[in-house]
Amino acid sequence: MTFADMEFSGASHRGACKSRNALEVLLEQLDRNFIFRDRSDLARLVNWSAGKDAPFHRWFRYREAFSPELIPQLNLGKRILDPFCGCGSTLIGAMQTNRSAVGIDLNPLASFVSKVKVTGLSDDELASIHGFLSQLSEAGPSEPDKISLPDLSIAAKVFEPTVVQTLMKLRAQIAAAPVSQNARNFLLLGWLGILETVGSYFKEGNGIKYRKMQRRPGRYVEREPGVWQNARFGSDQAGYVLGCYERHVRLMLTDAKLWVSMDGQSEVFNGNALDLIHLADGMFDGVIFSPPYANRFDYFESMKVELWFGGFVNSYDELKRLRKESLRSHLGADMSRDKTSFEELEGLLSTMDRTASSWRMGVPELLRGYFSDIIEVLKQCRKKLANGACHVVVGNSAFAGTIIPSDVLTAIAGKKAGFTHAEIWITRHLTVAPQQRSRLEGLERYMRESIVVLSP
Q1: Are 221 and 214 spatial neighbours (Cβ–Cβ below 8 Å)?
Q2: Which domain covers residue 444, as residue numbers?
């Protein structure tokens, strides 16, 4: 290393230290403006794993959900709004505690799952589903040339040939079954609920991975063809699919018996949280939601198999439109929409490392869009509230050597949106990503998952 190199390296180190010190000062100043409460007692309820095996919740694997048990723990009143309802945790929690709820989600798959969960079936409809299951043994694989796959580019890769043949024949039988539309939706949700189980893929992070690839330290290696398939599916792949489907639908039928004991009512709309004009002002006692976190994850990408195979999107133009309309939490959203001035955010962005990949790919613009959207959503929610509080479950993130305290920024956004009071309940601390750990050492306490409570 030359003297010039050493001088440059030293300057870079001093610059990083200066930026880190500025970040710590900013984070401390922002925290000082709000009341923080330790609500670690709610930690397991803001995480999907607490409810993954709970009735209704287990019908469709949705890692971004919180537990329905969270609803009775909060002072939400009798009428609840969830503008990011996902797969229905709020709606089920409301119905189980004699409340009414309205849920909205832009993702047509999520709103479909929620709608099926909250739509009780009659005894006759349940009997028709039992009748359908009794004929499942007749469903075997179809001829390969008679299978029509969706236009998803990876459609032929995400299932084994016999698996996809069996799935598509089963899908056709569901469509033709002599049952009511609500019963058919129930059967279709059961089908959607097993796709990842019987698939050659699985959801991970911001997308999907293939089961043929095995994780090794620092790399993936391909498993031996034929071996991993036999270990997972057995020698009778058609039987495996049908067995998974029957067990899953029977599990759903067991949970369906609980509908009669649920006194509350819930409605679901496929729509955008940025535009709640169809809901009357002042009609809710409480609002709760967990927006997509500001972490660049595109949930349309991780759910693309279910979206395409379920028929919720039929072209890439449709998928692009959904991405563009969604909250600006990922880079596929429409970054050209108007942005609201946010001085506190700009201070944090000024501490980012401009040589980092996240800076170069446009994360600062994403964050400006994200918190502008959060302000707009909270304005909408403020109008729909009578006198109750709005609870926002949110997690902080880190980019380019800077922590983005989404909980504090959401509290500030709430003030900009017309709420008077804000406090932050810290439920648990999050792990700093490996690539950020050395730069953020000593600041780990700011990586939190919290509930921001906003009141008039």
Answers
A1: yes
A2: 22-108+263-455
